[in-house]
Amino acid sequence: MSSDTPHQPRFLPTCREEMKKAGYDELDILLVTGDCYVDHPSFGVAIIGRLLTDCGWKVGIIAQPDWRDPESLKVMGRPRIGVGVTSGNMDSMVCLYTAGRRLRRDDCFSENGEPGKRPPHALPVYCQLVRQAFPGIKVMAGGLEASFRRVVHYDYWQDKLRPSMLIDTKADIFVYGMGERPTPEVFRRFEQDLPLDNIPGTARLLGKKAAEEFDPGEKYVWLPSYEEMLADRDALMTETKTIEREMNYLCGHGLLQKHGDRLVVVEPPLEPLTSAELDRVHELPYARLPHPKYKSRIPAYDAIKDSIQVVRGCPGGCAFCGLVVHQGRAVMSRSEDSVMREVDAISDLSTFKGTISDVGGAAGNIYGSHYDKEKCKSCRRSSCLFPTPCPNYSCTGLEIVKLLRRISEHPAVKHLYINSGIRLDLALRQPEFMRELIEKHVSGHLKVAPEHLSKQVLNYMRKSSAEEFYRFMELFEEISRTCGKEQYIIPLFISNFPGCSAKEMKVVDDFLNQHRWSLQQVQDFIPLPMTMGTAMYYTGKAPDGTPVTVNRGLAERREQIGVLKKKRSFSERRPDNRERFHKGKR
Ligand code: B12
Fold first, then answer.
1. Over the stretch 361-415, which tens digit does the pLDDT of each residue have?
2. pTM (2 decimals)?
3. pLDDT for res 569
4. Which end of the chain is more exposed for a tag (fewer CB within 10 A), N or C?
5. Confidence class for position 204, pLDDT limits 50, 70, 90
6. What is the CATH code of the structural domain delimited by 306-443?
7. What distance in angstroms lies between residue 209's CA and the mean position of ligand 1's atoms?
8. Ligand 1: residues whose CB is within 6 Å?
9. Domain 445-586, what fold?
């Protein structure tokens, strides 16, 4: 797919020698990331680098610099326009630490999964390193850490409220959410030394004077100030509710938040890319490989190398996940033709063995989602599906079925699976998709995320009911039996979500005992920045103010983790399942 075009090098340069090969005497833009450099559309910085190069700028990437040595950023010299910084594909603290606040033994975004290749709170560390290396240079930041920490937020690993990360990064501007629209505009303004105001999808910090002169007009709403939030724990719930209410790009306001005499200005949310624009982003000339300087495997690349992202956005709004305040609720689907061109690109890779491991995104059954945009214009919901599916939202599943059949007909494709989580509530309303999925696209087991079974906890999680999970299980087993396939469901549950006491966890325990089910994957609740679950964790209250159980210390959490880790039979492939499979009994 990609060879050295005058415009786009095989890989974006990472050193002088590669600059020379690309014909670059000087870089216009330098990008710094906490992940290894993988030139693939599943890696945010690769998209941004390719996009800025496509705009005509000379862009280089420095991946996982030595954060104690500014010289490590100077290998390609001082960039002419500015620097873009990201901690990587996810928050550096999520990458470094487990839910138990222990250092992870591996980091799937580093070579060989080696941990410790990035510093804690990587974004401010890298931004300050840039300033040391290139005094006076313009700095912007993007990616999940910048996005989820754009305003005051609770940092679980430090167990405290932190100010907007604009304060400690001292970056000129943040891009929040998906970066394709605002990032080129930011660098255009950097290049022409223009003011950085009014760019949707960005956030910036105004000094004392500018804050005093700033006229908010009708465009913005106020968040509690940093000082007010330090003084009143409940203010984090107020902030979180306001952010969720203003995330609809059709009617969302910008946000203002005082930090002393300075002012954080968050511009209104972005309009998502159109389907054609999303196709174009995925069809930039990626090498679809890690940079050749890496001699060992990069687990995060292995996880996605034969997978295709076909959607952006998520209608779910689950309380433990921040995607809605990053990608938005408006789901945008790529065109079938563009997806087929990506299948061609994957099948051209020497590493391709005939299996497409995933066709998905935030969920595996939201491709082809449709909205009645007119009616969405005044929507302030935090979810299109919870507590009940909104009538303005539809996803029949028929477009997924059509896409899956087209990919399956590709001569190089032997197997095609869906590994992105399946939204159970939607799947029960997508009978054709359910049948197609279970008959043809399950590789021995299907991961589904009921997350819990207690009515109260599912309510707090903003997830579909336990009854929908049981119904899904029945349908799965019925259809598997009918098509003679011995395959299993792997349920994912979360322990210690706020509002889940031992009584609620017993519901999950009883279910797993009844089915003699031993889980392999255990997910303990991580209070991630900017999620409703974190606001409940920090305030000890539900969104309606009801006090909820919160297990904070490891000792308190151990009991529920134990419920998920308990060995109930030999393996997930429950022996009783085989009996049930053969005898058709529940
Ligand atoms: C695929 C995936 C994985 C894959 C990784 C593959 C990969 N390449 O990322 C695997 C399976 C390895 C994985 C693992 C984990 N994951 Co995961 N994963 C995802 C998933 C589903 C897609 C990521 C993706 O493809 N993003 C696409 C890129 C293009 O999007 P992006 O990073 O947002 O980039 C855009 C913007 O941020 C911006 N941008 C990005 N970089 C830059 C740089 C600059 C300079 C600028 C200006 C802009 C910019 O522009 C980009 C283009 O629009 C996301 C959910 C999601 N849909 O985002 C969860 C997610 C990233 N994972 C998450 C988590 C929690 C994990 C785990 C910790 C789970 C676990 N408990 O084990 C582990 C990590 C363990 C570890 N550290 O080793 C969380 C992270 C939350 C957070 N606050 O960081 C997410 C968001 C899921 C969630 N719903 O909360 N994951």
1. 999 999 999 999 999 999 999 999 999 999 999 999 999 999 999 999 999 999 9
2. 0.94
3. 67
4. C
5. very high
6. 3.30.750.210
7. 37
8. 31, 42-45, 47-48, 84-86, 89-91, 94-95, 104, 106-108, 140, 142-144, 147-148, 175, 178-180, 183, 300, 303-304, 309, 321-323, 361-362, 528
9. Transcription Regulator spoIIAA (3.30.750)
pLDDT band at 583; cut points 50, 70, 90? very low
Distances (CA, A) of 351 to 288, 346, 373: 11, 9, 42
Q: pLDDT class for 6, splitting at 50, 70, 90?
A: low
Specify whether the CB–CB gap between 417 and 355 falls below 8 A: yes
**Region 28-50 average pLDDT:** 98
Domain 16-204 has CATH 3.40.50.280: yes
Q: What's the chain's Rg over C-alpha atoms?
A: 24
Same fold, 16-204 and 306-443: no
Q: How far is the CA of 208 from the centre of ligand 1 (A)?
A: 35
Q: 89 C-alpha to center of ligand 1: Å?
A: 5
Q: What is the mean pLDDT of the chain?
A: 94
CA gap 138, 150 in Å, rounded: 18
Please, are residues 334 and 359 in contact by the beta-carbon 8 Å criterion? no
Q: Give the residue, by CA position, lying nearest to ligand 1 atom 31.
A: 44
The side-by-side arrangement of strands in the sheet containing 29-33 is: 59-63, 29-33, 82-86, 138-141, 173-175, 202-206, 262-266, 254-259, 220-222
